[in-house]
Amino acid sequence: MNAVPVFLYHAVSDDPPSWLAPYTVTPAAFRAQLDRIRDSGLRVVPLRRLVTALRGGPPLPTGVAVLTFDDGYADFYWTVAPLLSDLGLPATLYITTGALHPPGGRGSGSLLPPAPMLNWRQLGNLDALGVEIGAHSRTHVPMDTVHGRRLTDEVVGCKRQLEDVLGHEVASFAYPHGYSGAEVRRKVAQAGYTSATAVGNLFSSPADDPLRIARLMVRADTPPRVFDDWTRLRGAPTAPHRESAATKAWRGYRRLRAALGRPVGGPPKSPGQE
Q1: Where is the NodB homology domain (predicted)?
Q2: Mean pLDDT score of the chain, rounded to an integer?
Q3: Could you count the other beta carbons within 10 Å of the beta carbon of residue 22?
Q4: Burial class, 97, CB count within 10 angstroms (exposed 0-12 / middle 13-18 / buried 19+)
Q5: Cys-Cys link to 110, which of 46, 98, 144, 191 (CB 3.0-4.6 A)?
Q6: Angle between the 120-128 and 158-166 helix axes, to the nearest 10 degrees?
Q7: In 1-119, which ranges are continuous DSSP H helix?
Q8: Which fold has domain 6-259?
Q9: In contact, 12 and 76? CB cutoff 8 Å
Q10: What is the pLDDT of residue 102?
């Protein structure tokens, strides 16, 4: 089974807001990580290449990786995109539409705390430059704690909003915090997305679920040796991975808190969680 590292980034900045700092890497660290990927012999391919293989198309060659970025922070436009363009590397950027800045104002329709975010004009420019734009919900709510019209709005509404602005289909989705569940995945498939990414802190593989693609989260405290292990296809389990009892219990607890009006979020707590 060929392991495929699908790297998950959030912000790339020297001066992030304090709440975002644990999920931020510096530009220098990011460039060093891209160099490590190159030096390991891995070839960065578009996410759609992995999705095509997962859906029965031509198999992936050995030694490939995928780059993904969540939320839609402004540093992607000013820091990440120029570097990726210089190196000729593809990437997928998942957008929380309620957090983007509308013309002349600031986004206020998401659960993300304040941070410098992209605006819609910049998003269109990135799309024109070849960055794949994916959906990341409207408000960044943990998807497995909402149902009915709210779930539809987060999944379908986000897709329609992006497609209206970009003028073409948006086929990829990323679950906020990595959380999904069977009901959420059904809604994503019914909406017409062909792929969805989780977290899990696992390698993806040719046997992975295209609606629950495993990713490796790169954080501020990810040690270079750990990142090196990932580029050498070691140091993490490989998907598919059965959902643990702890993951199911954590989902039940979060749903209860959401029902009481006191939601909790955050990334998955251990390998194998969605």
Answers
A1: 63-274
A2: 90
A3: 12
A4: buried
A5: 98
A6: 70
A7: 27-39, 47-54, 75, 81-87
A8: TIM Barrel (3.20.20)
A9: yes
A10: 74
Q: What is the mean pLDDT of residues 74-90?
A: 97
3-state helix, strand, coil split of the chain in percent (to 5) is 40, 20, 45
What's the rounded Cα separation, in Å, for the pair 171 and 14?
32
Q: Summarize pLDDT for 243-274 with one digit per residue, the tens.
A: 555 555 555 656 556 656 666 655 444 333 33
Cβ distance 74 to 117 under 8 Å? yes
d(CA 215, CA 66): 9
Tell me the torsion sign for CA atoms 153, 159, 162, 168. Answer: negative
Q: Distance between CA 175 and CA 15 in Å, rounded?
A: 26
178: left (phi over 0), alpha (psi -120 to 50) or beta: left
Q: Which two tokens stand for residue 231?
A: 């580029």
Q: Locate tokens 């993806």: which residue?
A: 204
Q: Which residues pair with 12 in a beta bridge?
A: 25
Phi, psi dihedrals of residue 164, rounded to the nearest 5°? -65, -40
The 8-class DSSP code of residue 242 comes to: P
Phi, psi at residue 102, to the nearest 5°?
A: -75, 165
Domain range annotation of the chain: 6-259
> What are the start-end ranges of the E strands in the chain?
6-9, 11-12, 24-25, 43-44, 64-71, 92-95, 132-135, 172-174, 195-200, 213-217
